[in-house]
Amino acid sequence: MSPTLEGDGRRLRELAEFLRLRRARLDPAAVGLPVRARRRTPGLRREDVAERAGVSVAWYTSLEQGRPVSPSLRVVVALADALQLSDADRQHLHTLTGHPPPQPTDGSADTVLLQQLVDHLDVPAYCTDALTNVIAWNPLAAEVFGDYGRWPAGRRTLLRLLFEEPAFAGRLVDRDEYAARVVQTFRGRSGAYLEDPVAIALVDDLVREHPRFARLWGAHTVRRTDSDTLEVDHPVGRLTLTLVNLQGVATPGTRFNAYLPADGVTASRLRAALPPRVGTDAASGS
Prior knowledge:
The structure is a single chain. By secondary structure, this protein is of the alpha+beta class. The chain folds into 2 domains: 3-96, Orthogonal Bundle (434 Repressor (Amino-terminal Domain)), CATH 1.10.260; 111-173 and 224-284, Beta-Lactamase. The chain contains 14 helices and 5 strands. Strands 2-1-5-4-3 form a 5-stranded antiparallel sheet. The longest helix is centred in the first third of the chain and has 23 residues, at 3-25. The N and C termini lie far apart (63 Å).
């Protein structure tokens, strides 16, 4: 047996066992099924799961028997709902079936802690969620990109700001290149645009309303950037910044971005650009 086929066999066996165990955990009464006569095995029957997920019993049985079946993303989501999986189990089911794990897009990240994190930095820093909503930022980030608090939370999304707000990020030497990076990174790091209704609507709106976004999106270019360089024309002088980012901070899908000075001149100019008062008012939009 080839290594690939052997690996597929392990994955299928793991998927089969995972489904059987999660099915056995569910109490039929807890999911609205009638109480039946005592059964030898606990949990739902295969027929129950198949009906709740909208698939045939024979097809679902094939999954639990480890046969080479490839469920679609829609079916995987339906199975997760039918089995009432936790967020962690949902992600594991996506991995076992070869689909990108779902990304939370409900703003559930601990924004208070994230705000404290960026406030303690003396370099431009901000955090975004899986939809590029800016959920925390510090005064130096506002100096470089613009005051995020100028826009209501519903529009405080990098993708919207870059294509719908000309005043945003006006100090960047190459704003168009930065916008392209955001689009390509969003596509490369988040599966939200494939399955989340909010993300799908966001992309559809931008494709329909903004030809440049449509061209970038249509190119299917992806970036998984750990570092980048940004040039900024600030009143104190030209700034050359190096991006460092961390993903999955506080909540999966959250991205922490900090821009470090690339040289001593930039470091000195950043100190001069720092507003005299450093607070957290900006993050609340007040």
